[in-house]
Amino acid sequence: MTGVRMSRVRVKICGITREEDLDAAVNEGADAIGFVMWPNSARAIDVERLVTLSARVPPFVTRVGLFVDQDAELIARCAPWLDLLQFHGDEPPEACEGYGKAWIKAVRMRDDVDLAAIEQRYSAAQGLLLDAFRPGIPGGTGETFDWSRIPRTLAKPVILAGGLTPDNIAAAITAVHPWGVDVSGGVELERGIKDPVRLQAFIRNVSNRGVTGEPIQ
Ligand SMILES: O=C(O)c1ccccc1NCC(=O)[C@H](O)[C@H](O)COP(=O)(O)O
């Protein structure tokens, strides 16, 4: 049987801290690389490391910087080394703008979250990254959430995150039909250290799916 490939699901590998992990992700075909600039994370890098790692990213791979309610001055210092900003805190929309970069809004899927209202409020965001909610932890929890809570009616591209692994990614794509997927802990040996085997399996398992979640023949 020949499958019709309508589109492909984009993959972001998040929490990159080392050159070898960056190279492995890029060589496997990652569309985007995430750098955690929030200093309280075990996956955090500083601006100096960002400059070094960012320079290693080839053309057509998106460099994404993650921020959690951080100073405008720090974000502005990072921005020249990034293609896209990802905001995980309570930043109002105005605080996400003014850096000359496209940005996405990370939304933690608390029980009472109103995605339609968030989409309206953050209307200038390029997409919504939907992640698990755990009190006090702004991201990278390694936990999934109930994917059926994501309405099909959102206008913005959805990036699915939270507890994705090589084993559940096919089911996640089938359930959500996301524009993209984002993984950190599911491809790690330990925090900030990626496992090349899991990385390869994750990206290959995404690449084998179209937007319908059906295998591509
Ligand atoms: O990874 C972190 O430590 C982190 C800290 C603060 C804000 C965001 C963070 N990560 C955000 C990501 O984009 C993760 O990739 C996403 O939350 C999924 O993580 P995981 O559940 O481990 O795959």
TrEMBL record:
The keyword Coiled coil does not apply. CDD domains: PRAI. Pathway: Amino-acid biosynthesis; L-tryptophan biosynthesis; L-tryptophan from chorismate: step 3/5. It catalyses: N-(5-phospho-beta-D-ribosyl)anthranilate = 1-(2-carboxyphenylamino)-1-deoxy-D-ribulose 5-phosphate. GO terms for biological process: L-tryptophan biosynthetic process. GO terms for molecular function: phosphoribosylanthranilate isomerase activity. Its EC number is 5.3.1.24. Pfam families: PRAI (PF00697). Belongs to the TrpF family. This is N-(5'-phosphoribosyl)anthranilate isomerase. Keywords: Amino-acid biosynthesis, Aromatic amino acid biosynthesis, Isomerase, Tryptophan biosynthesis.
